[in-house]
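Lecture 7 notes. Example A: sequence first, then its structure tokens.
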Amino acid sequence: MEVEFLGGAREVGRSAVLVDDALLLDYGLLTADPPQYPVRDPEPDAVVVSHGHLDHVGAVPALLKGDRRPAIHWTPPTADLARTLARDTLKLHGNSPLCPFSAEHVARLGEVEHRHGYGEPFVVSAGGTDYEVTLFNAGHIPGSAHVLIDDSVGRSPTGDRTQSDNGDTRLLYTGDFHTDDQRLVAGTTARPDADAVICEATYADVTHEDRRAVEDRWAERVKTTIWEGGTVVAPAFAIGRTQELMLVAEANGLTPYVDGMGVEVTRLVRQYPEFLRDPEALRRAKGAARFVTGRDGQRERIARDNELIVTTSGMLAGGPVHSYLPEIRGSPTNAVTLTGYQVEGTPGRELQDHGRLAINGTVRPVSARVDSYDFSAHADRGGLESFLSDYEDARVLVNHGDRCEAFAGDLRADGYAASAPAIGDRVEL
């Protein structure tokens, strides 16, 4: 088995791994200005998508150009989230060369998709090889999956499954994962046997603070700010983080306004209770929240009303957050609570590191209090090491992180056969 890294290697974003030039794992984009896509345009026979975040699924419709019709495999929530993200990308960039697909390509997803639950093996044919693929709960967002690929399964002339001479490798692609429980989803407990592991490393140099302590600090900041007469803007990823903050808010007696794509995503994920840790808790949180329509200056009024506002985008790259920040930035009574990873080069990272923000093309200082809270949906250093302790005899390829090489070096020092491929690298397993 050979894997080629088309994106997501030594970086966070545009994940894309090509197996044997035929089976593609994820096909995302990197949120930047302009957006960045995988380094080349593959023509796979089949695609397996780990989860519904933009950096893993955002470019998938582009694989359906012309007469290309690769089979696309994912969980039901990922299928719906992919469409939601694609429609949003078209809204932002649809009339621009920055967008590599059209509404027609998005519509074609229904022609080629196959939806699978966790722990249900299925066969994917690509490049003349039959791979047995199994998805496992990755504990990241609803529908997120580890992808296990076994190339030792072939087909007999009668169509029956048999052992194949084409290969003998079991590859585990972790996607993004968390080993601890969140309010929205339970942490991963899956540890399927594998000869090689492509492992994410987003938080390889971080130890997460106890989640309940983070929740308590965030809720206290929100309550204090509102009591003092301020407004709290909580930028949040639409998928996963918005729902997590809604759950935390409800548990602490807060009634947030919720704005942006997170409104649609909340309704969507509630359709799949089997992929949620506590569907009833999310029902209560939705009932406690107030969803913003954005009509007739509503956002400007809310910003002046000493409220908690949970809104996209999580890295301040666009969306309704740009309506709220100009209204609240000038007063130190107000607060911005950053609750997610801020990729280098994004407006959120600029605000986090330098206390300033580009608004309507002009860089302005932000006097409002800016705090960061670690609501990460990724495993930290301890979680990564705990997960990989089951794969001490496997080959480990580290990707999806800012410090992949350093983490791979630490793993080698601990006895692992670990490396951190660069974009464009081909690795024989």
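Example B, a different protein, same format:
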Amino acid sequence: MKLTKALFVLALALGLALPAHAETQNVKVSGSIDIYGFYRNNFDLQKSNDSGAADAAAAAPAVQAGDHAASQTHRSEGDSYFMGITQLEIDADLTDGVSTVVNLINQRDWNADVFDTTTANTAEEFDVILDLAYVKLKEAFYSPLTLTIGRQDLVFGRGFILGWNPQDPTTTIQADEFTQIQSFDAIRGTLDFNPWTVDLVYSKTNENSHDPEDDRDLYFTNVNYKFSERNAVAEGYFFADLDKHTTASAAGSNNNDTYTLGGRFQYDPIAQGTLGGELAYQFGNYSNAAGAADRDRGAWALDLFGEYRIENPWKPTVGIEYVYLSGEEVTASSSESWSMWRGDFRLPVYGWIHDYLELYYETGLVGDYASGQNQEHLSLYGSMVPMEDVKLSANYFYFRTVEPVHPSGLAGSSSLSKDIGHELDTALTYAYSEDVTFTFMANWFIPGSFYTSGMDSRASEYLSEVKVVF
């Protein structure tokens, strides 16, 4: 890894030297304005609990070592507010195949005093934040090679492994799942040997104190092949998440490194249908706290999907998807292999409410934890265009745990039911013009018997959005 990092640093130094005297050939200014209106109920799964949810002190040991913490100030009953996200992007084409992109963004809840923390952040409400800032060098040093250096979005395949890096730097929005800052500080090399494409990526996701013993670095290699028939695509990847940030205070005595090896294949058996699947295996080390003993990782993830597009003026589409994310029966002192899937950078949304419980919105149930691990679900979805410029869509999910969950955190205690619950997400989109779109979403999560009495109220969300692109 040190040799790879050194090569990336060399490429960065050479790359930045090239455009020092480049002339601007073309400049494009674009942007967007998004205005959201929210109305939410019972995101803590408790009725008549306006003070927000807080897990009891006896909560189970943390099983996902990530950078996000559930809010303890989210109100349960009738939470309504507005949010605005404004972006301004400048794209410049220079000489010799050099281009640059800079995207600036402001995102804020309208005139909120205390956002998702207990500290007043009024001064940060109108801050302009750097989202994207990268230079792209086409045919750099070698004809098939394109270098992209700087702050950039990274999405590969369906985003099952790498594609999502949500950030709310100024803590000025409560609905962090709707943030549009998802970029990485990264160096990406793309080799285009049509029909083969090879990507090599390095990203620094956490530097901390310029001490190598508290960093978090990502290395990603993706090989993609596009077949000449049936829209078939095959790809394989290796992902290394070298994480000393989680256990930084142990000063190198342990780590939380995760290595992911996987592949995806999809094709159209008929013109109107798509079938595909993705399988990945994780290995490495698991340690969730400074001083905690390292455990070997051994986790699996599976994604199977199919879609059929019906020939009809309404353009109806129906699909089905099954996702498996392996779990662990948490114990207090087990030293066996850790089989809980780690998907910190997964892009797809598996339920607009359930996917973010215990990630951004804390429930009152002791022992539950963020989704994306120890979970399998089946989803059925569909969409149609009943009239010009109007689209209707819906997605139904049924969730179950893979391994038993014990509310005390000990395997010897009684376990909760595996029935997590159901979710229905719906959306109505109206394209008012080429530049303006209106969207209304209505989402409901119905807790299953996994959630105990008093912690099992239905959560609902009604969201309206107007989006202008220029």
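Note on Example B: Residues 2-17 form the longest helix (16 residues). The longest strand covers residues 24-41.
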